[in-house]
Design a protein that fits this description.
With 682 residues, the protein is of the alpha/beta class. It folds into five domains: 144 residues, NAD(P)-binding Rossmann-like Domain (Rossmann fold), CATH 3.40.50.720; 156 residues, Succinyl-CoA synthetase domains (Rossmann fold); 160 residues, Succinyl-CoA synthetase domains (Rossmann fold), CATH 3.40.50.261; 59 residues, Dna Ligase, domain 1; 116 residues, ATP-grasp fold, B domain (D-amino Acid Aminotransferase, Chain A, domain 1). It is 34% helix and 22% strand. Helix 13 links the parallel strand 17 and strand 18.
């Protein structure tokens, strides 16, 4: 694929094909104010939308910098070949019926391959997409209406869905959009390619992504690292949270994670903020555009209404995204008391009432006092009256006072409307012009603040790609443990015994554990007997369990915490390691955190702190602390085992890994192997 600059910022443009779509592309280009040359190509028409038409690509007076191909899929391939042979700069392929329609039409994949071959080194976007709008240079290859307008700087947004992009351009929340790009099938040019191309534009401040599938993992990682090098944040809306990657799972790890957890871990590793919806993505992009990533999640919040202040605090707690409202410190209290007197209860969030409303100096002093603390963002709630029925003039004082406070303190300040309808585009523009951040809607704005605080430089170590495995089989527990023992994992001493073959003595002391071999969820199926004190109890348990083969193990008696440590191969996002509350409570508590491999000691310790059961690790209610150093060693041993055997492992799980004051003992282990989807042994 060649450079996209010529396609994105052309001097000469050809629209190939007639009908409503071809005419609309020309009209939208004219409406936006494109100053270059427009050409139409149609075998019969003399003109399209007032633009003279040429009969073929060969008849064009120049090789166009950019082309929109609005013909059927079969003709598209031939047109792409003609453009490539003439040395054109690139094209948008509008037609559908390629790889996305393979289930309905077996020719889809072959047609897409033919399209790629026809393009050669010429960049193509699509097929099955609307193209793009460049609001910076007043140019578009776009066959429909869009809601944006020319800007001098702004954010870029790339979506895989054309309709979602149309919707995003219609936003009225005060977000300046520089580029609106759709990727379609990504036959040649990927979402990551489009993102890299526009991030290099100094007029672009941040990147928003709507992702249906990551595509090439290395390519996506490269995009994240390029964004970090450009010091520009990325926010992503990754769809598919409810899709189940594995319909029939034999481990707790797979049932806990699915494919969405691995996507989450990947995006976090790459420093990309993940959001839950379109509105939240817009609000996050506004923060990134007007301020940049937030240093943290410490907020001070002020409202002239106690109801608003309480609602925001409650919403933040319900969302559970880690926003922090630190208690007011002495400096803040002194400054606020000097302005507000003793009639206002001082707290964070603050209800400053309306005693000083309209008093610019007083409001500015109150906002400034609130900001005099180690915080990452100041938030002032203001809902403007609707201008068609009310006079919003009296609310402008909030903008002016906040501007003064921003200048006095150099702290970032956001003005937040509790409902999106209560801040118009013009009001958002005035807020932005004052050096403030306009935010709309409580839920999406609080989510956006958390997201903007999660943007960070991408991890410099590449993710380990994982194979697509089918026909998986499970090693028995004894074989799994024997392999893991080679990597230094602390495991109980054990002995495999067949029915009626119990030796007189064991190589380890009682009490012992008896397990049925060949069962994944032994405790749920009565396949585990704990604390067997002597040979008689052991024989009785074997008779009751009635299995052909048993595993007898030493009993770990001084456990403090049970954890799950699992790794699953996700071909879309790489190997995913999960740490979770373990044992029989794994799926009940669903207390887990996941990381993309590879990881180091610091990554493990940070992840452990995010678990709800984390206090148990450091000693809880007089109990001793668990040996976290041994835990880290165990996790790294699992990683080493997986990576050394990634040519044949699809899943590894320790559950539980029992932590004691001196050990991290894997009392149960599972390893799943399989074959690559094309049939070669892995």
């Amino acid at each position: 694929m060649g450079d996209l600059h010529r396609l994105f910022s052309p001097q000469t443009v050809a629209v190939i094909g007639g009908g409503i779509w071809g005419r609309s592309v020309i009209q939208q280009c004219q409406k936006l104010g494109f100053a270059g040359m427009l050409y139409a190509v149609h075998p019969k028409a003399k003109a399209l939308a007032g633009v003279p038409a040429y009969r073929s690509v060969a008849d064009l007076p120049v090789a166009p910098d950019a082309s929109f191909i609005a013909v059927n899929r079969d003709a598209t391939i031939d047109i792409v070949r003609q453009l490539s042979n003439r040395g054109a700069g690139g094209a948008v392929c509008f037609a559908s019926g390629f790889l996305e329609a393979e289930k309905e039409n077996a020719k889809g994949a072959a047609l897409q391959e033919a399209l790629i071959n026809a393009a050669g080194k010429m960049p193509i976007i699509g097929p099955n997409c609307y193209g793009f709008v460049n609001y910076l240079d007043r140019f578009c290859l776009w066959p429909d209406q869009h809601g944006g307008r020319p800007v001098e700087r702004g954010v870029a947004i790339v979506t895989q869905s054309s309709n979602i992009m149309i919707n995003l351009t219609m936003q009225q929340r005060g977000l300046p959009i520089a580029y609106a790009l759709t990727a379609g099938n990504q036959a040649q040019t990927s979402l990551a390619d489009l993102g890299r191309a526009v991030l290099g534009d100094p007029r672009v401040t941040a990147l928003g992504l709507h992702i249906e599938g990551i595509g090439e993992l290395a390519d996506f990682e490269d995009l994240a690292r390029y964004a970090s090098a450009c010091k520009k944040g990325i926010v992503a809306l990754k769809v598919g949270r409810t899709a189940q990657a594995q319909q029939a799972t034999i481990s707790h790890t797979a049932s806990l994670t699915g494919s969405d957890a691995s996507a989450d871990a990947l995006l976090s590793r790459l420093g990309i903020a993940r959001v839950d919806g379109l509105a939240e993505m817009i609000e996050t992009l506004k923060i990134l555009h007007y301020h940049g990533p937030l240093a943290g999640k410490r907020l001070v919040l002020a409202s002239c209404s106690g109801g608003e202040a309480s609602l925001l605090a409650d919403t933040s707690e319900i969302q559970g995204k880690g926003l922090i409202f630190p208690p007011l410190i002495k400096t803040q209290k002194e400054g606020l008391r000097a302005v507000l007197g003793d009639m206002v209860a001082l707290a964070n969030p603050l209800d400053y009432h309306t005693y000083i409303w309209g008093n610019l100096a007083g409001m500015a002093d109150a906002y400034s006092a609130l900001l005099k603390a180690p915080i990452d963002l100041g938030v002032i709630v203001v809902d403007f009256p609707r201008s068609d029925r009310c006079d919003p003039e009296a609310w402008e004082c909030v903008i002016v006072a906040a501007k003064i406070a921003r200048q006095k303190t150099s702290k970032p300040i956001a003005l937040l409307a509790s409902l999106a309808e209560n801040m118009s585009e013009s009001q958002a523009a005035r807020i932005a012009a004052a050096g403030l951040i306009p935010l709309s809607g409580i839920e999406e704005s609080l989510g956006a603040i958390a997201a903007a605080a999660s943007v960070h430089p991408a991890h410099h170590v590449p993710v380990i790609a994982a194979p697509n495995v089918t026909g998986a089989t499970m090693l028995d527990e004894a074989a799994s443990k024997a392999l893991l023992r080679l990597y230094g994992l602390d495991l109980p001493q054990n002995l495999v015994v067949e029915r009626q073959a119990l030796p007189d003595t064991l190589p380890f002391d009682y009490p012992v554990v008896l397990k049925a071999m060949g069962q994944a969820h032994k405790s749920e199926m009565g396949g585990v007997k704990l604390g067997l004190a002597d040979r008689a109890e052991l024989k009785a348990a074997m008779a009751e369990m009635d299995q052909p083969v048993y595993l007898i193990e030493e009993m770990v008696e001084d456990g403090l915490v049970e954890l799950l440590v699992g790794v699953v191969a996700d071909p879309a996002h790489g190997y995913l390691l999960t740490l979770a509350a373990g044992g029989v409570l794994t799926e009940i508590l669903k207390d887990s955190v996941s990381l993309s491999l590879p990881i180091g000691e610091a990554d493990i310790l940070t992840a452990l702190e995010k678990l709800r059961i984390a206090p148990l690790l450091t000693g809880y209610r007089g109990k001793p602390a668990a040996d976290t150093a041994e835990l880290v060693t165990a996790v790294l041993a699992v990683q080493d085992c997986v990576l050394d055997n990634r040519a044949r492992f699809s899943e590894v799980e320790l559950n539980p890994l029992i932590l004691t004051p001196t050990r991290a003992v894997a009392v149960d282990a599972l390893i799943k192997t399989g074959e690559k989807s094309h049939g070669q042994s892995i």
